[in-house]
Every structure is written in structure tokens, then in C-alpha cells.
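Researcher: Quick test of sequence recovery. C-alpha cells follow.
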């Protein structure tokens, strides 16, 4: 049985450990004190067959520097960050020769009870070829839908798909929307979006908003359209 090391035991790290436990020997190292049944030393985690980084992107530099002297040459580093160009840049700057699989699972503990049927993005041009095929074969065994994209293509699409969605949801959360006596299906969807965002960590939100350079453009387009629409509405005077 293959061993999978996970660095980080936040909501996503815990989710990965739970989902992979039946298929692999799972080892977890957490910088915070979160006892769990997979707990192991960083050295043991770094020598696993596959090593997943389940930490915020602003922790990548420090975590990778801690891992560098401990990593086995045979260990396959698996990047699961929500942004791809920046994560690859950091990893290759610190570990230029490590075997690497660049991925993005488009699911998490808030959106998936199991892995089957969900989507995994793979970035071939930034990954070691043999390694990527291993990851793809394993993903298909778990009944995941696999899509190949470049890191740039991924970030361009996710700026809208994830960046804009999280931004709007965060605004709704800040507005403290609550259920009313009168509800419509559309309003219920807004409430659901705000409640879903409340379950995401601030680290994930800022990774998606700041780690992807294309997200700012999409955010600004949305704000410009909203301001323009507001001006149009204000200019209409009822008789």
C-alpha cells in the first residue's frame, strides 16, 4: 500500500486524510497542535510516496524550507493549492529537482461528502510526466473526473469560477444576511452562498483573491458593473 503524507491539518488536510484513509497509509504532520490518528513526525511524512501540501500559500516558503533537507528523492510532491502559477513558482524556486504533480481538486469538505464524481485539474507542463500519469490513474480509481490544463489557463478560469464566487459570497457574509419571514428560491440561494462562505477559512479566501493575479481584474469588472448599474437605477425617477 502506498503512503501519503499530508502537511497541514486544517479542514482540507483533515478532509484529505479521511478520504484517502481507505486507499493508502496516511501520515499527517501539523504545525498546530491537532492530535489525530494519522499523526507523524515531519521526517516520516517527508519520506512518504506522495506528499500533499495542505497549507495556505503564504506558508509555502517556510514549509518547503523545513521539508527540503528531509525529503526523499523518491517522494512525489503533490501541489493542491487553489492557485497554480504562484504555487509552482514558489515550489520550483526552493525544490527545483523534486518530482512534482501540480493539481487542483475542485472540491473540499464544504462541497463533497466523497470524492467520486468530482473534478481534479492536472497541469502537465509543470509536472513530472511519469508522476502525473500515476496521479491520474489513482484519481480515476477514485472515480474523479480529470481535466488537463496549463497553470495559466487554470488561473484564468478560476479567477471567475472561484475568485468571483468567493468574493460575492464574502460580501454577502459581511452584510450578515439572515432568513426572512418572506423567502424566494433566489434569496435562499444567496443565504446558502453566504453560509457556505462562512465555513471557508480566511487563509483560503485571501489565497484565492491575492494568489491569482487575474482575480483582481475580474473583481474590478464586477465592481464597475455594479457601480454602473447602481447609477442607472438611481437615475430612474418614478412619476
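Model:
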Amino acid at each position: 500500500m502506498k503512503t501519503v503524507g499530508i502537511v497541514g491539518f486544517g479542514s482540507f488536510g483533515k478532509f484529505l486524510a479521511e478520504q484517502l484513509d481507505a486507499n493508502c497509509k496516511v501520515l499527517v504532520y501539523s504545525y498546530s497542535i491537532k492530535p489525530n490518528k494519522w499523526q507523524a513526525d515531519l521526517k516520516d511524512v517527508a519520506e512518504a510516496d506522495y506528499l500533499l501540501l495542505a497549507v495556505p500559500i503564504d506558508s509555502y516558503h517556510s514549509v518547503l524550507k523545513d521539508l527540503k533537507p528531509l525529503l526523499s528523492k523518491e517522494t512525489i510532491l503533490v501541489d493542491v493549492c487553489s492557485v497554480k502559477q504562484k504555487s509552482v513558482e514558489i515550489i520550483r524556486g526552493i525544490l527545483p529537482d523534486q518530482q512534482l504533480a501540480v493539481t487542483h481538486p475542485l472540491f473540499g469538505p464544504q462541497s463533497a461528502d466523497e470524492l467520486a464524481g468530482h473534478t481534479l485539474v492536472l497541469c502537465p507542463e509543470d509536472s513530472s510526466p511519469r508522476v502525473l500519469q500515476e496521479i491520474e490513474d489513482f484519481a480515476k480509481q477514485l472515480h474523479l473526473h480529470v481535466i488537463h490544463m496549463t497553470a495559466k489557463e487554470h488561473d484564468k478560469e478560476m479567477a471567475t469560477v472561484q475568485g468571483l464566487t468567493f468574493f460575492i459570497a464574502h460580501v454577502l457574509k459581511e452584510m450578515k444576511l439572515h432568513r426572512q419571514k418572506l423567502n424566494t428560491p433566489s434569496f435562499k440561494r444567496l443565504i446558502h452562498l453566504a453560509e457556505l462562505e462562512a465555513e471557508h477559512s480566511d487563509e483560503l479566501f485571501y489565497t484565492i483573491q491575492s494568489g491569482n493575479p487575474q482575480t483582481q481584474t475580474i473583481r474590478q469588472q464586477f465592481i464597475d458593473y455594479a457601480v454602473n448599474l447602481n447609477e442607472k437605477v438611481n437615475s430612474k425617477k418614478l412619476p
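The first strand starts at residue 3 and ends at 7.
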